[in-house]
Design brief:
The chain has about 325 residues and is an alpha/beta fold. It has helices at about 10-25, 60-65, 75-80, 85-95, 145-150, 160-170, 235-240, 255-260, 300-305, and strands at about 5-10, 30, 40-45, 55-60, 105, 110-115, 120-125, 185, 200-205, 220, 245, 270, 290-295, 320-325. Helix 1 (about 10-25) crosses helix 3 (about 75-80).
């Protein structure tokens, strides 16, 4: 069934915005084609034969665009129309009652949100990609709610996403897990879930240190090194994979949804890394296991971030938590 989306490009500004949005989609892992994680672009008045799963129709006439309810050409509007924003929406909506926000820190490597005893982190955007700018509201973030901050995840702006994800993690990745999390807590996870030597395992993200224990695992990278799987080769590799480990950095650039869509055939899928929410709603979106960071000492974490620290998984700062879907407790490893 084709998902047909009409986009308003009825003036030069909208046309340029649409072209920019298509580049953002491609950077997030969407590609041109006919699969679930792919899209095609056509003209609203053109007749087409075989149609892809996702068809973006460019509408150049303003009156026609208004008549058919064409969406604006912003990147996240396209992502929502493609049905690929449900992970972000679920995470943002999962936040319950919590203390008001005390502090937001957007550091060189990490973004932090503190609210009472709650503290969450997420990777800051890659250096050199954004320039010096601010997303600070007029009166700052102090006193805001975690739920409002979490809504920043509903964006294609990487700085907003980092803030939103840190707010989500403040709520879920707490030292004492919420009651609804307890049934899913598992003793270990992440790359440790994969049995050596890792045959049939694919890791999305450059965790090369894992290859010492998992020499037969393969890595998918946008800039592949010898032995890696390129993005173009990934679909064929996914079709043969028995276990998939995806870095939580994919939540930072909106590439998780197309990866999940392209790997429905993989029996076991892990989302892991310090930025990963220990939140069971991820099980509703095709993830079998999550493995994230829990801040043990918020003051020490704050000092570490302000001093441009990188490897935050230090014993005195953070520990890990694994959640495993109920159906997956007997279906781990390779």
């Amino acid at each position: 069934m084709t998902n047909v989306i009409t986009v308003d490009i009825s003036d030069p500004d909208r046309k340029r915005a649409f072209e920019d949005a298509l580049h953002v989609l491609e950077d997030a892992g969407w590609s041109r084609g006919v699969g679930k994680a792919q899209f095609e672009v056509g003209e609203a008045q053109a007749n087409r034969g075989t149609q892809p799963s996702n068809l973006l129709l460019a509408c150049r006439d303003r009156a026609e665009a208004q008549l058919c309810g064409a969406i604006q050409p912003e990147p996240f509007e396209l992502v929502k129309a493609l049905g690929a924003a449900e992970i972000e929406r679920s995470l943002a909506d999962s936040i319950g009652d919590a203390p008001p926000v005390d502090k937001v820190i957007i550091g060189f490597n990490w973004t932090m949100v503190r609210a009472g005893a709650l503290c969450g982190i997420a990777r800051s955007p890659a250096r050199g990609t954004e320039g010096a700018r601010t997303i600070r509201p007029e009166h700052g973030f102090r006193g805001s709610s975690l739920k409002i901050l979490a809504q920043n995840l509903m964006s294609m702006d990487p700085l907003c996403r980092a803030l939103g994800l840190a707010a989500v993690n403040a709520y879920w990745n707490r030292p004492e897990p919420p009651a609804q999390v307890v049934p899913f807590v598992a003793p270990r996870g992440g790359l440790a879930t994969i049995k050596a030597p890792g045959e049939g395992a694919i890791i999305v993200g450059g965790f090369r240190g894992a290859l010492e224990r998992l020499p037969k695992a393969r890595i998918v990278e946008r800039e592949p090194k010898p032995g890696d799987i390129s993005v173009a080769e990934a679909p064929a590799a996914f079709a043969k994979a028995r276990i998939l480990a995806v870095t939580a950095q994919t939540l930072m650039n909106a590439s998780l949804a197309p990866i999940i869509a392209a790997t429905a055939m993989v029996p076991y899928r892990i989302l892991f890394g310090p930025s990963c929410p220990a939140c069971p709603v991820l099980f509703d979106h095709g993830v079998d296991e999550v493995f994230g960071a829990v801040i043990r000492d918020p003051d020490a974490a704050e000092a570490f971030i302000l001093e441009s620290g990188t490897m935050i998984m230090l014993d005195h700062i953070a520990t890990t938590r694994t959640l495993r879907a109920a159906h997956a407790f007997d279906n781990t490893g390779v």
